[in-house]
Design goal:
transport, Growth Hormone, Chain: A, cell membrane, about 0% strand, mainly alpha, about 75% helix, transmembrane helix, transmembrane transporter activity, two-stranded parallel ribbon, 3 domains, about 500 residues
Length: about 500
């Protein structure tokens, strides 16, 4: 071990100011990643209009990122444990910056999709290192303050992402139209890379798990076999090979389970720790995270298309319309963790699912009643109700899922929670072909676009409401009084990522 490397249990001295520079750098990277997800959604209609992207390409601009991120998330964390968190962070942020440049200068939709997949893969290298570096850099008594700052940065990213995306798209800087939403990452990424080399201290895990590249390949193959036919099937008339591919995905997932069992028995470092699923609350929580990701994937893409294409709103108006939702999520999330969950336990999460479903149903009613004449202020009430429900879920859910997990598996369990949420998000984006595009039709006149998108939006929201009902039922298997898994989390840093809160 060189002089710049240290095990997880060793932190820099409290008097060392370098650790605060390191914190600012990794927080900037986390902020850049979160904003990049939310900033893209608001620009999707502009990308479709200016580049002539098909509906399936639009789905892959977002789903490709989520799929690559999910597939590489656990592996990215393990690579950092083995080869050094600083090294993997720098590789990740350097690659993320390069991929952002490729996105910004994409010559066609195909190149943009490929660049987004690369960007998601690089985020999977970068993001897992953030909290690992914090654990390795700060003593335990300072981490509460640090995680409070982290939560504030996440909240700021959730609110500012859509607005920044809307402004950059509206301003059309240098005639580049939507491209500045990606190019803005370049100066930030270069600065973070250079400063990270100087101020972040290297660290490794004293005993890191081995890589499971076969497991990653099987997960990726299974998801591709499922998602590709979903996104392309409608445009191609639902060919037979699509159904064969989706059925074959089940066989790939079965092979994954068999391989992971052998991997666990052989060297104890599988991609997926299957023994965790014997814990009832964890298995239910994983199902909740996956299905919740599906709901978010459907809603946010359909929502932005509804506002900008169906209603004909400009990106800035659409971005401002989502502010009440973001504020409601942030407010309810803070209340749920600090005041509500300690008193009411699991009922808070179930109330969140019902509240979110109520907001969705209210949105359906308003979209039907007001049609194309609906105003932003009329959307505020359902969005606030939905945001409040979502806030009650997202903040305490991880602790609820981890409550009964053995401490030695806390890190693996946390990584898996975030991975399946991203996989669910990618699946939801794929299902948009069925629940939205499959309803509005292919050949629409200009006069038909608005009514068709309004109808498709309502249809998709019925699916979201149904999914929230399923989530409510699954939550009954969570512990009545979730407890924070502090010791396990401290010993095995989780791969953390906040859900994409806004479109």
């Amino acid at each position: 071990m060189t002089s710049t490397e240290q095990p997880l249990s060793t932190q820099q001295s409290p008097g060392d100011r370098r650790r605060w520079f390191a914190l600012a750098i990794v927080m900037t990277a986390a902020f850049m990643d979160l904003v990049d997800v939310t900033i893209v959604n608001i620009a999707i209609p502009s990308i479709k209009q200016n580049e002539g992207a098909s509906f399936s390409q639009i789905q892959w601009i977002t789903a490709g990122y989520a799929l690559a991120f999910a597939a590489g998330l656990i592996t990215g964390g393990r690579l950092g444990d083995i080869h050094g968190r600083r090294r993997l962070f720098l590789i990740g942020i350097g690659g993320f910056t390069l991929a952002s440049a490729l996105c910004g200068f994409a010559a066609n939709p195909e190149m943009l999709v490929a660049s987004r997949i690369l960007q998601g893969g690089m985020a999977a290298m970068m993001v897992p290192q953030v909290l690992s570096i914090v654990h390795a850099t700060f003593p335990a008594h300072e981490r509460g303050k640090v995680f409070g700052l982290f939560g504030a940065i996440v909240g700021l990213g959730a609110v500012s992402g859509p607005l920044l995306g809307a402004l950059l798209t509206e301003w059309n800087l240098f005639g580049l139209e939507w491209r500045p939403i990606f190019l803005i990452n370049l100066p930030v990424g270069v600065a973070a890379f250079l400063l990270g080399r100087r101020y972040i201290t290297e660290s490794r895990a004293p005993k890191a798990l081995k890589l499971d590249l076969v497991g990653v390949a099987l997960v990726t193959l299974g998801l591709l076999m499922l998602l590709y036919p979903l996104t392309r099937g409608r445009e191609l008339g639902w060919p037979l090979w699509g159904y064969v591919s989706m059925a074959g995905a089940l066989g790939v997932f079965a092979a994954l389970v068999a391989y992971e069992r052998r991997k666990a028995a052989r060297d104890g470092s599988p991609l997926i720790e299957l023994s965790l699923f014997r814990v009832k609350s964890f298995a239910a929580g994983i199902a909740v995270q996956t299905v919740f990701g599906v709901a978010l994937g459907i809603f946010f893409l359909v929502w932005t298309l509804y506002m900008q294409v169906g209603l004909g709103w400009r990106p800035l108006r659409a971005g401002l319309t989502g502010v009440p939702f973001s504020l409601a999520v942030s407010t309810a999330a803070g209340m749920s963790v600090q005041k509500l969950v300690p008193r009411f336990g699991r009922k808070v999460l179930q109330a969140g699912a019902l509240l979110m479903a109520a907001g969705v149903l209210l949105y359906i009613w308003e979209a039907h009643r007001y049609g194309l004449a609906i105003a932003s202020w009329q959307m505020a009430l359902p969005l606030v109700v939905m945001g409040a429900g979502m806030g009650l879920i997202v903040a305490p859910l991880t602790d609820a899922v981890l409550s009964e997990v053995p401490q030695e598996h806390a890190g693996s369990a946390s990584g898996l929670i975030n991975t399946v949420q991203q996989m669910g998000n990618a699946l939801g984006l794929g299902l948009v072909s069925v629940v939205f595009f499959g309803v509005i039709g292919d050949r629409l006149t200009r006069a038909q676009v608005g009514p068709a998108f309004v109808h498709g939006f309502q249809h998709a929201l019925w699916w979201v409401a149904g999914v929230m009902g399923v989530i409510f039922l699954l939550m009954s298997a969570l512990p009545k009084r979730p407890a924070q898994h502090v010791e396990g989390a401290a010993d095995a840093p989780a791969v953390e990522r906040e859900p994409e809160l806004v479109a």
